[in-house]
Design brief:
homodimer; alpha/beta; 6-stranded parallel beta sheet; 4-stranded parallel beta sheet; 15% strand; elongated; DNA-binding
DNA sequence: TTGTACGCGTTATCAC
DNA sequence: GTGATAACGCGTACAA
């Protein structure tokens, strides 16, 4: 038995297909009784519209593309980061009846822009979500904008007032984490910076300085190190920092991977965590809980951010484009085992 | 400027649209010269077929659905596991001009079967890939089979000779790992079993026993523990195992998460790894390399498996369904820091 | 408020 | 080998 079509529904309900279409698409100008009749027919036949036919007729697919940096590549965000975003986007898409297409891509590749445009031209998605750090790269962003397809960028670091984008309050919550460390008695709090192309990550450094000031502590460039978001760079920075005569008693890292690197070095050097050294990260990737001791970190609401972005795109496809603004979803501190009172 | 259509190509090449269609779909019965003309026109116009129109007319989408257990749920496989599969499937899909739809689902949910059928009916994918442990659950598998959509199951544990499926040589490579541990001088090699619903995981236990026999070691039920694939269960089993008077000098776990749990307990108990205890896992999820010491494990070729499954589905959509067989892709041992010579 | 008729860009069935 | 022409299932001016 073939799937029921809109015609089947129409004849069963005794109306025209246009009316069915109106009901299905929640358009106005349908009488209550008519709507009920149609909905009953839909239920009876288990009708659901054919997406291909819809797309063909409307020139737009009920589909959202999630673009992010390829985890197979160098310096890529970790798997948990991606899975979280996917989850959020999927959840929002499902309740809206949209599908999610994932599109990891390597920004080091010459053809990323062209590939992206080709994809967009082919599938005609209702919208595109671009994750950090891709969301801050002109090459990527401009290529997408050229297609005129609706696009929401994640964690761009700062809004420009001209478009809708979604971010978290990195700076504020990083300041909060710094104050938290200070409240534990730490006075030498080091910081490991992350990838500079990732603006949201550099916001965390600003937050660190804010927190220092708020806690009445002095900023010292000598206990700030330059990482690149990878575990390896976390190890390198840790070795440098921990070899100093005035060794910091706490290290705050711009992401969890680097914090994991610091933890590795501490374990190797026989430095007790959190007894002699407190470590804090950012992102709350699943690794954070799997380490021993489990990492104190900042939970970035990636899932909620992706869901919010998806929703905005879905609404846009339905004729309600979001107002230009930077939507901020607050992160929160997760205190676990890697932080404790400062040693005497 | 709107996208070129098949009509544009046809008129530019001076042929009918049916001929263009033949060329695009690589059908026979087209003269060499005609084909060239058409291909030139296609190149000149940068033409690419509209997927929605194709799907509508052919009743099938150029799309593959990847179904796996929801990572948000209890006992779920880790993020790295999923990302790996996605990567493999995506790679194969891209070169074939197909898209990948991801569909995490929670098998504990009452409606998984119905939801799956609804999805399949809606998008009409060219095929479906079902990952373990879902691939071994009748509820899921039967629901998909009822739709008649082509389906390839991953890691079903054993082939039934009636269908095409893809797996790895869990048993053989687990035996190899056991022999490897034995070759390091270990004579008390414990094993932590995994989720029983995951057949491929239980194959590893069989491999363990094979390896023991091959190494001339005796099997003892007393140093085998029952885990459930989670980190927590790894910890529980480890505490039991490590408290025994005849403490094992090596613990081989049916997956990496449980091995991570064992490592946590060892660290907590002050047992040196690998000096006093060797630990080995299975799967080579990214966590394995991030731990300290990094985990010796078995690399499961998930990416290659997913790619192979995708390819089979794509071929099937093109009229070349794969022969019924269990396609086996070999795994390999990754020796890292968590294993070493047995203590005296 | 509701319906008619056409178009969307393919594939597929025939006839030539 | 090649080409009209009818589906495919839905959206949408436009008419009623």
């Amino acid at each position: 038995m073939p799937r029921p079509t809109i015609d089947d529904v129409a004849s069963l309900a005794g109306v025209s297909i246009k009316t069915v279409s109106r009901v299905v698409n929640r358009e106005p100008n349908v009488r209550e009784v008519t709507r009920d009749k149609v909905e009953k027919a839909i239920a009876e036949l288990h009708y659901s519209p054919n997406p291909s036919a819809r797309n063909l007729a409307s020139h737009r697919a009920r589909l959202i593309v999630l673009v992010y940096d390829d985890p197979g590549a160098y310096q890529a965000p970790s798997a948990g980061y991606i899975i979280n975003m996917q989850q959020g986007a999927l959840k929002a898409c499902r309740t809206a009846g949209f599908e999610l297409l994932i599109h990891p891509c390597n920004y080091r590749n010459r053809n990323v822009g062209k590939d992206l445009q080709e994809l967009i031209g082919r599938v005609r998605p209702a919208g595109i979500i671009v994750a950090a750090p891709l969301s801050n790269m002109p090459k990527i962003v401009n290529a997408i904008k050229a297609t005129k397809a609706p696009c929401v960028r994640l964690s761009t670091g700062s809004g420009n007032g001209k478009e809708y984008s979604v971010a978290t309050n990195d700076r504020e919550v990083s300041a909060e984490m710094t104050r938290f460390l200070a409240s534990l008695g730490h006075r030498h709090i080091a910081f490991i910076k992350g990838n500079k192309r990732h603006k949201a990550v550099s916001n965390r450094f600003d937050g660190y300085r804010d927190g220092l000031k708020q806690a009445g502590l002095e900023y010292s460039e000598s206990i700030v190190a330059d990482g690149d978001n990878s575990i390896g760079s976390g190890e390198e920075c840790a070795e440098k920092l921990l070899r100093r005569p005035d060794r910091p008693t706490a290290i705050f890292c711009a992401n969890d991977d680097m914090a994991a690197g610091v933890l590795r070095v501490a374990t190797r050097l026989g430095i007790d965590v959190p007894g002699q050294l407190s470590i804090a990260g950012c992102d709350d990737i699943s690794l954070a809980q799997q380490l021993y001791p489990a990492l104190t970190t900042i939970r970035q609401p990636l899932s909620a951010m992706a869901a919010t972005a998806s929703l905005a795109l879905v609404d846009g496809a339905r004729g309600n484009p979001p107002k230009p603004k930077l939507e901020t979803i607050p992160g929160s501190i997760q205190v676990r085992e890697s932080t404790g009172p400062a040693p005497k």
